[in-house]
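Quick one:
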Amino acid sequence: MRLKGKLVLGFTSVVFASLAILGGIIYYTFAQGIQKDTRQILTLQTRQTAMAVHNALHYQINDIVIAISPSINRLRRNQALDAVALENLRAITDKVPLIKSLYLYRNSTAAVIPLSTRRNAPWLIDNLKNLKNSAPGKSSFWFHSHNHLYLALALTAFNNKNSKKDQNILVAEINEPALSEFINSLTTIKGSVLYLSQGGKLLIPPISTTGRGGKFKPPEFSRIQAALTKGGILENQGRIYQPKPQLFSSRISILIPRSFYQSRLSILRDRIITALLIVAWCAIWIIFIIAQRIVRPVQRLNKLTRDTIAFNYTSELEIKPSDDEIGDLSLNFENMRLKIKDLVTKDQLTHVFNRCFLMHIFELALLKALRLEETLSCIMIDIDYFKKVNNTFGHQAGDEVLAMVGKILLQHTRDYDTPARYGGEKFIFILPDTTIDTAGKIAERIRRAMEQQTVHIEGQRINCTLSLGIAELDKHTANTTEQIISHASTALRRAKDNGRNQISIFVSAS
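Output:
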């Protein structure tokens, strides 16, 4: 993996880990408070729902009792109801969709009298007797009979003749679907499930505020009962509330789904996740920018390193100066590169190029000349009687002479020429895009300049001369660096054989 990838991966991992930890801390810091507030809100809402159902149903039943009181008083006085009175009772019942029919159970005669229907219900007598014996003192209770739901209400009055307490019971046959819709219409908590029970038994099917026949299947009442004994938690489905007041001796149990119960937590979680994703997205871009700023100078330094290895010292650093570590590294690298360039390419004594760099430049110049069909000339230079100078005046004098030759070559060098020390007292001068005649003129100027120079060593004057051999690129006989150098060396030997201190141009035998 490249440096940029490692930086991005490392920084991104740190950022995501930090954001995950931060998100967890924020979530759990606020979650407890939100859960507590949610429980309090749900407690108030369920109590409000139970109170609304209780009051609405209680008022409707009381209105009916008040409306039928004259008829009930007539029955208490053993007066039969005429057709008009019965029709009025039926009209009153029809106005209340919760009630299908009304019956009056007379305690004194143990008889059931139909009030708003022509249908007798003798089976209610046994039910009412059993319920009164099993629940004495209750003013109201629910019961099932023949697959119908009934609500029994105790009506207390006094017989004027004997002043004995006469307790009669008003029995209302309940319209179960209408009761479910009525309770559902008063529920403010959507998605909840209501259970109406008495004595641990379910009175009507569970009322789901999502609508019957929906995808949500209400839990069995037995599970609700079991959950109420364990703090009201029903596994992963939700929390159960059983608020007061009671509804005519029945209890309302409300199941709040887990999704509703944790809705505020879900909102908090979603907001935290959204905020963290936005921060992470911005952080990734910042990481990319930082990584790019770190990696780009390193990439440029790497390119310069490859160019340095390939003897290409023309590339520039192209890094803006800065006061940070990258700026210091770039400046130090550039200084090191210049020193390496000087050490690798230059001869430290003569300050011209060394043989290694010469051959590299020579190859490039030859390839260019062959590709563009240009001329290329080469001058090989040798110091006359250099060994005699070393033996007579010492190596220090020889070094002075070599330095003098290097200085003269640099003085006669064009921008695109390459003067180099080939080895010992021999030098080579590469002249791109130069004919052999022009090379001869340059060689003559170099020879004269050296002839006019004098080296002073310990009070002694030393005059040295140069012999120069010139060769050029020939596509047929000299199209490699070795062949051109060989031809220049041949011309140099001819100059030495002819008396030294002169130039000689290689002439092909063909």
